[in-house]
């Protein structure tokens, strides 16, 4: 099945509104995310591997900001341990509605509870793996510490948190270079200058990336004993923190 192509920002808009995970975005999301995030496919593959290694028997796995459930599906494929339940949460109704169909397209005995809710309001408990795959950057910066602390408290000893994000860099020339290379990646994937610039405007108020240093300081502050970057391509990265 070929994914519907993302043309959302291809026509000149009289006013570019804030980016929202609405029905229009949900309908093209697999194409949008794979053409926008370098390494997205590799990150999903590794989530599957991490699940196979780190998920504990009789525990829960959380996919926070699950969109259409791509990370949930990858994790579910990797789990070998018995009596595991996956809880996938997103506050976009358009995403959750479509996620149900995506999840049903793959056969598995591992139960998935799909919830339409704000991840700031849900309880995390008995968790051995929690994933925030490009979600934290969309949360108000002031709410991020509390979420990571809540996740830490809901993890079992030895449990892991995986956080994938767009990064900012403290060194200005490095920042500019890596952001420019990412724009080349989007161009190479068929996005026009107009699409790139209108999407950038749309994301300006809603997506606020942190630096690697800010993420690692937050993990340490929440109580995580260890954390490390395990993937980076340009200004996109994935980190793992272990309780
Ligand atoms: C970039 S997408 C995540 C992609 C997805 N994890 C994947 O791997 O394909 C970010 C998602 O986070 C969701 N989101 C943002 N803020 C949220 C919140 N406070 N509570 C729940 N979901 C949220 C959005 O609706 C969106 O679907
Ligand atoms: O930074 C960009 O240019 C993006 O398009 C990034 C990004 C993301 O990181 O989530 C933004 C929105 C879409 O969900 C897909 C990709």
From TrEMBL:
Q: Does the keyword S-adenosyl-L-methionine apply?
A: yes
Ranges where the Methyltransferase domain occurs: 61-159
| Signal peptide range | none
Task: Write down what this protein is called.
Answer: Carboxy-S-adenosyl-L-methionine synthase
List the InterPro entries hit by this protein, alphabetically.
CmoA, Methyltransf_25, SAM-dependent_MTases_sf
The free-text function statement in the UniProt record for this protein reads: Catalyzes the conversion of S-adenosyl-L-methionine (SAM) to carboxy-S-adenosyl-L-methionine (Cx-SAM).
- Its EC number(s): 2.1.3.-
Listed A to Z, the keywords are: S-adenosyl-L-methionine, Transferase
The UniProt entry, under Pfam families, shows: Methyltransf_25 (PF13649)
Record-linked Gene3D superfamilies: Vaccinia Virus protein VP39 (3.40.50.150)
Carries keyword Ion transport? no
